[in-house]
Amino acid sequence: MALLxxxxxxxxxxxxxSEGDECFRPDVSRLYLLAGPDPAILGxxxxxxxxxxxxxxKVVAILTAGLPGVLVANQxxxxxxxxxxxxxxxxxxxxxxxxxxxxxxxSQGASRVLHILARMEAAGDPPALDALRFLVSRTLLxxxxxxxxxxxxxxxxxxxxxxxxxxxxxxAGSDATNGVCTTTFEVQYATETEDAxxxxx
Length: 201
Fold this sequence. Notes:
Blueprint: E1 3-5, H1 9-13, E2 22-25, E3 30-34, E4 45-48, H2 51-66, E5 71-74, E6 87-99, E7 109-123, H3 129-141, E8 160-172, E9 177-192
């Protein structure tokens, strides 16, 4: 398996690569795996995502489906416009990693606690932040599986998710007053020590 670099999709499709090779694309900051035999066919390349990336995508999908009328964004950099409120921006926070073996350098597994920040913004004076915070927490923590049982594993990606802390702030603008509440959720999961794309457990 080789790690290659390509500056664009066209350059990636022109690579002399073998099945199992990886290609880093700095133009989109993504890693791709050649899963098929022909590097010239786009469909033979698949994007490689860490379990952490998959978890944040799942959180965004759950909130989008469960909060009609609320704009849910995945790691948005640009501030929300007044007309887009209420809104939730889901971002990655910090991650604590501990190794499962007695000796770190030989450990095969890593236990991870990922902090996901749900930054909620609502208009009004006072803003209806606590209701929005309640809805976000309830939506994430009461997901049901196909049999109707409670499932905090985010579709099997995690060991569990729980609410950690919330912090309120208030911003007064020239033409509107907005309130902001950031709730941190802890997501526990496990991966191989050397490959955060391989889930354990």
